[in-house]
């Protein structure tokens, strides 16, 4: 890999996470040569990287890369590509030997390994092999609802991956419009946003889906920007093995557990949990020709 800044390739999200974890592991378990104390100080770590690579980092750059800035959210400092290369060269040096080039290359496959390993784990005595992903679920789906004073339209693309699972792309589009009180049909919500040229906010997610031996559909999604997670599962059983494209999907969405702002009895908590589950049940319909 050329050390030139102009030709240094970009590092993927998964590779950056691997470098961050490996650098933190080295710091935590390496004693200071003078004091013998662990973890190694950030300044001592910075000096060691410079000795091994001839690349200088700012006083707090490495700490902000590993721990993040002291204020804000999702604000880890990500060094430029040639500095990430220096971190890798340091960690892979024969005297350090925390990472290998093979491990860095394989970091990109975590998005494939995770669903494959889960599919193997979920097998049962009656279904000893991972379930092949049904083509009947492949396609584009949409849903729309009101939430927190806005209209949100969710678009989901399920694409056959050929490895026992499917890749999923999901987009949430938010429209800040004045809404009357009471329940509104999907048709009225769509008319409310039909004159808007573009949404006020858009959040993109990507992930993967698999089917369990119990005919449950599980989808694990990650925000493309914040890397926050949510997942979906079937709320109602569907005939996914009939061969015909599935036209409707009723899905439960999960991210944060229900937070109770004040103390509640067990009965109250159960009732609030059920209400929250209902509000997180979404009806997706297939878009386009069958």
Mean pLDDT figure: 86
How many E strands? Answer: 8
Oligomer: single chain
Query: Which sheet architecture does the biggest sheet show?
Result: 8 strands, antiparallel, barrel
* Count of individual domains: 2
Q: Low-confidence parts, pLDDT < 50 over ≥5 residues?
A: 1-6
Question: For the terminal residues, how far apart are their CA atoms?
Answer: 47 Å
- Global outline: globular
Structure classification: alpha+beta
What share of residues is helical? 25-40%
The largest beta-sheet arranges its strands as 1-2-3-4-5-6-7-8
The helix/strand series, from N terminus to C terminus, equals HHHHHHEEEHEEEEHE
Number of helices: 8
Radius of gyration computed on alpha carbons = 24 Å
Strand content: 15-25%
Structure overview:
With 290 residues, the protein is α+β, with helices and mostly antiparallel strands. The chain folds into two domains: 13-110, no CATH class; 137-257 and 272-286, no CATH class. It has helices at 13-29, 42-53, 61-67, 81-92, 101-106, 110-121, 186-193, 266-279; strands at 139-147, 150-160, 166-175, 201-211, 217-223, 229-234, 248-254, 281-287. Helix 2 packs across helix 4 (81-92). Residues 1-6 have low confidence and may be disordered.
